[in-house]
Design goal:
InterPro entries: KH_dom-like_a/b, OsmC/Ohr_fam, OsmC/Ohrsf. With 140 residues, this protein is of the alpha+beta class. It is built from 3 helices and 6 strands.
Length: 140
Amino acid sequence: MTNHITTQWKGNMAFETNNTSGLNFTIDASPEDGGEGNGMRPKALMLSALAGCSGLDVAMMFRKMKLEVRDFRIETIAELTEEHPKYYDKVTVEYHFFGKDLAEAKLQRAVDLSVEKYCGVMEMFRKFAEVKINTIFHNE
């Protein structure tokens, strides 16, 4: 399968890009980097893609395993290298589950399956970064 994305310059430091979903969004630099700050930052988008990819896997497994979860959040914390080109060399992905009587073993299994088997973005990150995974259960 091939993906084709078109990214169009909109002036100054702003670009509009499409997605295979048919939706568009803006990429822009921060004001301190010469942009207007009216869009997403490219490197941060990579972290959103990582969390989104794995989050979709885990949410799909909620349904299949019939797991009760009141809320689910992924925190992605990444460190950039000091020298150019700067890239993420250390990434921590924290899966936070909220609810009563959480099925912790099954939820951990869902995270493990995403991390180890299904999430292609996670596999891409492993090619250039040390990736740590933490699962945190917030039983209410």
